[in-house]
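Example record

One chain of 465 residues, shown exactly as stored in the release files.
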Amino acid sequence: MSQQNHRGKFITRNQMTGQTGVNLIEKIVLEMGYTWNPTSGATDAGIDGFIEIRDPQTGEVTSFILQAQSKAVDREFDGETPTSFVYRVQERDLHYWLHGNAPVLLIVSRPSKGEAYWVSIKDYFSTPERRAARKVEFDKQRDRFDKDAAVAIRSRAMPTNQGVYLHPPPKHEVLTSNLLEVAYYAKDLNIAVSKYSTIEEINAVFEELDERPGRLWFVKEGKIYSFHKLSEYPWTKVCDAGAVETFNTSEWANSPDPERTSEFVRLLNQALRTVAYRKDMGAFVQPKRQIVFYFRPRGRRNRETDVDEWVERDETWKSQKSSTRRVVELYYTYSEPKRLLYYRHHAFTGKFRRFENRWFLDLTPTYHYTTDGRTESPYREDNLSGMKRQEGHHSVANNVRFLGYYLGYHDMFNKPYYYLHFGKLLEFDTDFGILDADWKNRTDPGEETPEAILEANPQLLLHES
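Predicted structure tokens for this chain:
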């Protein structure tokens, strides 16, 4: 008998790739905490499954549904680069997706490498130009389909006319504020009667005595207020040593009386100028403007000209790792490369604030511009505006952390000032945070993003994973 040939059944490689693409989508959707319901092969007319939004914390399902169409390949994507690729859709598929009543996600994947990317079809093809081109340009970072895309996916399913609350995803974060703790201030506040009524009169006496007692005092209504011991020389030359009163400084620091609080803050501000001076920072004072504390340039001797000159300055600091920051930079003209145009100094302004009887320095990072290391540059306003436009949230956050570290750092060569020293920036631990992917921009140009909001409001809390 002759052996009969029997033709078997086969599943193509494309079918296998297609199924692994659907399997990858299901895996990622479940990692998001949502549910996945595949369509059967017999009734699949362009939709491979349905995603239902579920609250991962409570398990409650919402009946908000997205349709998903999977397109999987086992090769390079069309027009692929390290950061992007192109996917072209068929006209009948696009017509089908756009005319339904539910949101549709196009998910293009390469299962062999475990990578997938997504767009919302109705959002992406909202313009006639894109519909005519029938081409999706994927950004590999922005459009990544993984568990971090859960919030963005959810936003496509939620109706705009309903207020629906889902618990934020669990994520531990440390929120770092721009509030630098006042770790210590002088224990005693001294008040003495004086026959001198102005700062100028008292300074004239000190000049005649060739004494420089510092700035840590002020005169008000015939009385001198200071953290210094006013019963000792040279203060006895400007006040009545027998009429010195000594108080616990906390009586002023924690007082509900705004006048006493103002007097205490005035002494803190004076002490801050000394702290800045000890850390080789200058104070730029102008009427009706906050004092700007800025890093001074370093000096060196020019061997060729035998003249002292200013040079750029770097400071080492440690956040998550040690790094160096250039805090003074010199800029020269394009036409004359050796002609100095201005110095740019890292700087800050600060206000002392009290929260629940704890005092903090509210730090605002900025820049200062000078012509010679001291004199304000005529280009200051334009240069400062330009820097503010360029800097993003990450730069502002790093500037705050650097300043907090620099002002609070002490060692055996850099001892804390006796009358005022700082601790660390105020931090908060949270059990819920914003996923890093949700800070990324998935909006069209011109829409306001979280980054743009933070850039415009640097006093907001900074977040650090």
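Notes: The chain has three domains: 13-167, 181-186+272-464, 188-248.
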